[in-house]
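Task 17 of the worksheet. Students: predict the tertiary structure of the chain below and write it out as structure tokens. Keep your answer in the requested format; marks are given for formatting as well as content.
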Amino acid sequence: MSSFLQAGRPPLILASASKSRALILEAAGLAFIVEPPGLDESAMRQSISGEGSLTPHDVAEVLARAKAEAVSDLAPKAYVIGGDQVLALGETILAKPDSMEAARRQLLDLSGKRHTLHTAVAVATNGEIIWTETTVATLTMRKLSPEFIGRYLAAAGEDVLGSVGAYQLESLGVQLFEQIEGDYFSILGLPLIPLLDTLRREGAIEG
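Model answer:
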């Protein structure tokens, strides 16, 4: 993919395997390379998000920074974008479901309740973080019957396993909610507007 926004400028790298983040950047007209950082995210989350450790807000930022730094160390001339998202039900951090059964249980836990989504993005170049942003959205899920959840998961398919909370707001997942407060792009996985502003300010994309 080529883009007039970046002619003659340093390459952009997305340090994430997230399809949603890639689609957001692609739709915004950016040309970039996808390079997952190869970190053991599950182990990292477990080590920094235990009781008495970092808040959900801080966990998201730490992981986004770690992803950007890991890839930037290998590609110092590029601008590297790292992102992470943490879902918190009260003070409890919910992990991304690893099976459809886990997704079903998670949706039952979230049914009829408010939860927060902490979305972080970090930009690194020359192996150092130059900017971070973490946003918070509050989402209230409708009271869902087990039967509805079953039909929803059957219709949405295993793509929901790539989404924290087992929902994708840009598609069928919007049917799960009664109220949403927060930035749309952040809920999808990336605080896009401040990210673009930073890339323009740094000269990584055309202003």
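Marker's comment: The mean pLDDT is 92. The CA atoms of residues 42 and 95 lie 9 Å apart.
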